Amino acid sequence: MTGRHSGRHRRPPEAQATYREVFAVREFRALWLAQVLSFVGDQLAQVALAVLVYEHTNSALLTALTYALTYVPPIVGGPVLSGLADLFPRRTVMIVCDVLRAGLVTVMALVAMPFWGLCALVFLMVLLGAPFTAARAAVLPDVLEGDRYVAGSAINNITHQATQMLGFLAGGAIVAAVGTYGTLAMDAATFVLSAVILVGGLAPRPASKRRERDSLGLWRGTRDGARLVFGDLTLRALVSFAWLCAFYVVPEGLAAPYAATFGGGAATVGLLMAAMPTGMVAGAFLFSRFVRPANRLRAMGWMSMLACLPLIGAGVRPPLWGVVVLWALSGAGSAYQIAANAAYVVAVPAEGRGQAFGLAQSGLLAGQGFGILVGGAAAQVLGPETVVAFAGVLGLSAATTLTVTWNQIRGGVIAAMRKEPPPDAAPADASGRAARPLAAGRAVRRSAPLP
């Protein structure tokens, strides 16, 4: 960090950073480009998998199960493995995870294997995403400070959603052109390029903790992270806002069976899957560029309700264009995660970022996976329209309850964010990361929210 905290360059806490300022930071450009490559490869592979499974099984449950598989690994080891981001240099953690994941995807592309064998490799690949995402989320406040961090988070969110949108729309055509194995090979290449970019563009930093590097130390770190987050009312509320994704992500997991109700194929699936990311891109841009930092926190609860409310409209079985509009509105509301991420960063001590971010993201991904899996099972009986509407009702109820609590405590958070952080402090992140919904990083679809 080369004097970026000097008094002359310090910004007033309420000053809004521009995207140009953020892209002027070399290390951020490296993180951003690595993110773009990762997301593009993942979205292409995900469309291929969703279409392939549904075409061969004609089962909403198995399709949702495959989709949920990209979220389930954090339940098993996400919170524990995220502690690696505090015990080892974060740059090293990201590079090693990229190299290992490139190897796993290469095996998928080169070796024919049964469906469940493929699922096992996908599981391991996503599991490695937990320490990568935690490390990336934890290092971002070291790269960007103040409202630059919020602007950088917004850029990451917009990038994530834009690549999802474009990947879903173009995925069908690309898979048809290069085939399933060719698509997997492209995904492996993105991991390799990401690692190369991080080697050359991100400065090495020492590990934030000097602690026994063994499994016992990781479990203790997980326990400490849980105590940190759940023992504080503000952090508990912010992480709960991030985990609301579990409700409004359900439609994406049911896109294939939902498209079938309109008699559509891969193109319709891609259109539906792109609706929410499109709304998120628009919402994140408007929310980060035209709403002042304090007002973002004031509007956060209402926007979380907007993320769930439009889904209830699926119960009246609107035409395809109506479904696309409703899902896009839901995506726009989910931009509240930007404010949640920023507040989370402010509230979490620097030495505990990896665990706090990892816990938030792991819970987010696990909740999304569980929501999609339950939604797929319910859709077998009730149909996708009814399940999406029901997810909207449950999400709106949870968001309303959280908003009531948030409105009672947000004053202290706003006051804290208005104070300029000390030289070595980092801005806060609300969901665990600072960019999209608490999930950030590259967690295979990683629709989420956080760094």
Automatic annotation (TrEMBL):
CDD domains per the UniProt record, alphabetical: MFS_MefA_like (cd06173)
Membrane topology (UniProt): Multi-pass membrane protein
Keywords, ordered alphabetically: Cell membrane, Membrane, Transmembrane, Transmembrane helix
A GO MF label: transmembrane transporter activity
Residue ranges of the region described as Disordered: 418-451
Record InterPro entries: MFS, MFS_trans_sf
Entry's transmembrane regions: 60-81, 93-116, 165-182, 188-207, 228-250, 262-287, 299-318, 324-347, 359-382, 388-409
GO cellular component: plasma membrane
Location of the protein in the cell: Cell membrane
Ranges of compositional bias, category Low complexity: 426-442
Protein name: MFS transporter
The organism of origin for this protein: Actinomadura litoris
